[in-house]
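Tip: read the tokens left to right.
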């Protein structure tokens, strides 16, 4: 929300309504939340009734985002006084330690919560964040795998595990993560394309070609898949002299034409088009090649 939009808020009622709308829409807007808190809400917080506890939490998270620890401490103190034994408040305490990079203290609190509720997904994710922030990759991968045993349909967790394996150059395990995602979302062209990228990296060009083609079937505008198809067929046709080699030649000529069309459709800079043509020449792909 811009400063101009904030100027439309003239009184306490406008500010409280705006905070409620952000909560309902699951929008953080941290700096703006603090501006409304200090400018309107804080002096008359009790006017909100029981809604004030939601506002305290909302402002607490905004304060952590902005590294405004005095406001965060005030909000947390109010929540602790009202809900002294709440797991939710304990989680907020741990998040305060996270914001101060005291990961050891944060992990101790998360572990104490998980002893009582081992399937608390949000706390498990916060624990993973602490491990990743400390670059404890082996522990992070182990805990993320344990998390996925409990929440197998969490596609974001599968993506995170895939990216972690890719960073560690473990392509086989990264491919497994994407296979799980493709089973869950078979019509997602990005998952098909990313799986093809990994198979290309592993040198499995035939399989990569199949998935690039399926990605393009789902979304003909996926330029990365077009480049992937161009590269895979270039590698395949150089080593195949059969009918299949001829088919690969036709496919990479088609991929070249589609890429050129994409650049021409958006009036790309001539230097960029020249660079693309140089790439084609490097791959020894020519329009007159049959």
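Filled-in amino acids:
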């Amino acid at each position: 929300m811009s400063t101009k939009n904030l100027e439309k808020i003239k009184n306490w009622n406008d500010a409280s309504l705006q905070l409620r709308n952000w909560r309902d829409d699951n929008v953080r807007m941290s700096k703006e939340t603090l501006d409304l808190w200090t400018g309107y809400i804080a002096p008359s917080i009790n006017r909100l009734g029981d809604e004030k506890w939601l506002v305290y939490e909302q402002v607490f998270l905004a304060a952590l985002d902005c590294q405004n620890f005095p406001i965060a401490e005030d909000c947390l103190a109010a929540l602790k006084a009202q809900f002294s034994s709440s797991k939710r408040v304990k989680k907020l305490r741990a998040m305060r330690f996270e914001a101060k990079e005291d990961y050891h203290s944060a992990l101790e609190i998360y572990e104490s919560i998980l002893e009582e509720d081992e399937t608390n997904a949000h706390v498990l994710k916060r624990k993973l964040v602490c491990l990743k922030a400390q670059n404890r990759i082996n522990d992070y991968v182990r805990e993320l795998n344990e998390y996925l045993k409990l929440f197998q349909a969490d596609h974001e967790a599968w993506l995170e595990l895939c990216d972690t394996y890719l960073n560690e150059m473990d392509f086989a395990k990264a491919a497994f993560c994407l296979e799980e995602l493709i089973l869950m979302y078979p019509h997602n062209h990005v998952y098909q394309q990313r799986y093809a990228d990994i198979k290309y990296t592993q040198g499995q060009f035939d399989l990569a070609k199949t998935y690039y083609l399926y990605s393009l079937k789902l979304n003909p505008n996926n330029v990365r898949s077009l480049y992937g198809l161009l590269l895979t067929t270039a590698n395949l046709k150089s080593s195949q002299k059969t009918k299949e080699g001829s088919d690969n030649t036709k496919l990479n000529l088609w991929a070249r034409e589609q890429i050129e069309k994409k650049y021409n459709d958006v009036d790309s800079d001539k230097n960029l088009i020249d660079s693309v043509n140089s790439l084609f020449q490097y791959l020894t792909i020519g329009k007159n090649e049959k």
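Confidence is low (pLDDT under 50) at residues 285-290. The chain is about 75% helix and 0% strand.
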